[in-house]
Specification:
Layout: E1 2-11, E2 19-29, E3 34-39, H1 45-53, E4 60-65, E5 68-69, H2 75-78, E6 82-85, H3 99-107, H4 121-132, H5 151-162, E7 169-173, H6 181-198, E8 202-205, H7 209-214, E9 218-223, E10 226-232, H8 233-237, H9 241-252, H10 259-263
Parallel strand pairs: 3-8, 3-9, 6-7, 7-8
Antiparallel strand pairs: 1-2, 1-4, 4-5, 9-10
Helix pairs in contact: 3-5, 5-6
């Protein structure tokens, strides 16, 4: 479903602030793969997702999504095929619009718009039943402004919007990191349920090693712009946090010192 070949990215090239963030990345995901990505600060995790989504241009390399070369496509064209959640719950929704209006926008992603009523009666009922599956009581607040929702409610709604039109690929960039532990667990459970139900192909960046081990069928560790560890199947299921720390030290030659990830 996704193939990256020799992908590299350098910021501020030719200046004193030059930083090579990704260095000759090769990665292949099969349809239905749910891959978690971990690594310290500056490892290149978020940049990898930004390159796939089209937020930043490639320096070199190729990105193929569902057998289509999207390497030179602008972000808005890729958005028809890629759903994304960010760490900040405010980035995935329009706060001044109603819940139902946000859902209607997501439903029409990649489609031509015309002059007609935004949401008809049948569509309202569809959204009511859809939002009800979140278990947050938002189905009775469809006309509420999204800006009035909590961070967890907003992130759950963003997840629903990102998967309303089944994407070819779902990108999750530490989408539970800004939430309190209970809400984070709820959103992560919703994430797993939706991905499993729709058989989505997904990449999830996380700072939580325990979540990285327990979630998905494959785990990738990044360091200094490289993929240094790639594990899946039964081997992944048998991993512990201590195993990951050892693998990091073994592959990088350094001790893992990211307090945020260790505490997570």
């Amino acid at each position: 479903m996704l193939k990256l070949e020799h992908v590299s990215k350098t910021f501020n090239a030719g200046t004193v602030n030059e930083k090579k963030v990704l260095d000759d990345i090769n990665l292949e995901l099969n349809e239905g793969d749910f891959v978690t990505i971990i690594g310290g600060n500056g490892a290149g995790k978020s940049t990898l997702l930004n390159l796939i989504s089209g937020l930043h241009p490639l320096d070199c390399g190729t990105i193929i999504l569902d057998q289509e070369n999207i390497s030179l496509q602008p972000e808005y064209q890729r958005a028809k095929k890629i759903g994304r959640l960010f760490q900040d719950p405010m980035l995935g929704t329009a706060g001044d619009m109603q819940i139902i209006e946000n859902l209607a926008l997501a439903k029409r992603r990649g489609q031509h718009r015309g002059l007609a009523w935004g949401v008809d009666k049948k569509e309202k009922e569809e959204y009511y039943q859809l939002v009800k599956t979140l278990g947050l009581g938002l189905e009775d607040r469809l006309t509420s402004k999204v800006g009035l929702l909590s961070g967890g409610q907003r992130q759950a709604l963003t997840l629903l919007m990102a998967t309303l039109q089944k994407p070819k690929l779902l990108l999750l960039d530490e989408h539970t990191a800004a939430l309190d532990p209970a809400t984070s667990s709820k959103v992560l459970t919703l994430t797993k349920d939706i991905i499993a139900k729709q058989n989505l192909t997904a990449l999830m960046v996380t700072h939580n090693m325990k979540d990285a081990i327990e979630v998905g069928n494959r785990l990738i560790m990044m360091y200094n712009g490289h993929i240094i560890y790639d594990v899946k199947g039964q081997e992944k299921q048998q991993l512990t946090v201590e195993d990951l720390l050892h693998k990091f030290e073994e592959a990088s030659g350094e001790e893992f010192t990211n307090d945020r990830m260790l505490l997570g």
